[in-house]
Amino acid sequence: MTPHARSHADADPGARRVLALASSALVVLVAEPLYLLVDTAVVGHLDGAGGATGAQAGVPLAGLAVGGVVLAQVASLGTFLAYGTTARAARHHGAGDRPAAVAEGVAATWIALLVGAAVVVAGWLTAPWLATLLGGGGAVADAATGWLRIAVFGAPGILVALAGHGWMRGVQDTRRPIVIVLAGNGLSALACPLLVYGAGPVPALGLEGSAVANVGAQAIVGVLFVGALVREGVSLRPVPAGMRAQLGLGRDLLLRSLAFQACFLSATAVAARFGAPSVAAHQIVLQLWMFMVTVLDALAIAAQSLVGAALGASSVGSARRVSGRVTRYGLVLGVVAGLVFAATAGVLPGVFTPDPAVRDVVPQAWWFFVALQPVAAYVFALDGVLLGAGDAAYLRLITVGSAIGAFLPMIWLSLALDWGLVGIWAGLTLFILARAVAVGWRVRGEGWAVTGAA
To answer: Is residue 453 part of a domain?
Structure first.
């Protein structure tokens, strides 16, 4: 063990270090959901700007919901690049070997570029089929197809950014990710309303303008993360052995992501069968849910980085102290969030759409969303602990089991029995509760705390 590693082993990361990592991660994490909320609000007001009524009301927002959930699944599939890279890079960082930690980022970036290119081709070709499958055909599917065929070109940037976040979190670099993400998403947030509605010489592109702004954000962020690797001075050659090691851990994380995908794609598909107002209402609450998941995940990322470094330096005690802290902080944050969303139930949905038909459906999902905040905080905090420990196989097992045993049956029963969004969000509730029991049991045991470098 190096002197650097011994210092990690002996040190208690403390509340200040946990909160410092979490706060920097929070800035990075909320930038993308905040941009998506701006995007949702801009597109949600296209009806008023274009005078859409009757059957066309809510179609642009519903099209964004259907197309957006497909693109979100690309990011969800790619989370193994972030989480797997963080776990492996943090172990090297804890052992005092920064070049090896950065090399994990190089391997992950090559994987991101190769997978991203394949996603562009597959996404463009299958966009009409996916939009019809999820949107039920008609105007909503047409709108989703047009949006998705543009937005899919942002996939390589999305995946490269995930790889970049992974290695930077592993080495506990808290400043550069903030600058990179704010640069890309900030410029695109300014461009989105301009491209959607037009101004002066800029034509009004409508819903497609939203997709162009998305691609711009992802391209800028991806290029900046590659530049950060270049400045580290390590070899940028693809190393097959390193890529295979990444993919080994990524296999379980990918299967876990596929379980999430099956759930949320099914939820959107079923919501679309209840009509444009239902899927638009689902989009609003789902985007707020994703925003809060991202906020709560800031603590999980701090846990992942610190737990990985502690176990890399053979300090199980430090890893357990991190686990306790992030769980307590997460529960407090979840309770506060639930109270805020309960108090704003009458006004917040109106920010995203002026359509009364959509706002009337929102309460069917809203109160599930409110009640789940503390439980979700607990789950995501302990997810971060187990991800930092590299316990991906267990997380894959419980996620797939909870999806098959809880979420998916409730979603399809909702369609068969006409339960609407109530059934969909009841399924999400069961899914989160099952995972809460499973991660709590695991962290109380010893099997996850395996020490040593990656």
So the answer is: no
- Is 2 a member of any domain? no
Alpha carbon distances (Å) from 30 to 83, 216, 228, 255: 17, 18, 21, 25
Identify whether the C-beta of residue 406 lies closer than 8 Å to the C-beta of residue 106.
Answer: no
Whether the predicted pLDDT of 383 surpasses 60: yes
In a domain, 58, yes or no: yes
What span, in angstroms and rounded, lies between the C-alpha atoms of 43 and 207?
A: 7
User: Is the separation of the CB atoms in 166 and 104 below 8 Å?
Assistant: yes
Any idea which of 15-19, 186-190, 209-213, 431-435 has the lowest mean pLDDT? 15-19
Token pair belonging to 114: 């190769």
| pTM for the full predicted model | 0.73
Domain around 128: 20-444
**C-alpha atoms less than 13 angstroms from C-alpha of 426 in its C-beta half-sphere:** 13
pLDDT at 1: 45
Q: Please tell me the total count of domains within the chain.
A: 1
Contact 390, 90 (CB under 8 A): no
pLDDT tens by residue, 66-119: 888 788 778 777 778 888 888 888 888 888 889 989 999 999 999 999 999 999
Cα 256 from Cα 397, distance rounded (Å): 8
Task: Answer whether residue 346 is part of any domain.
Answer: yes
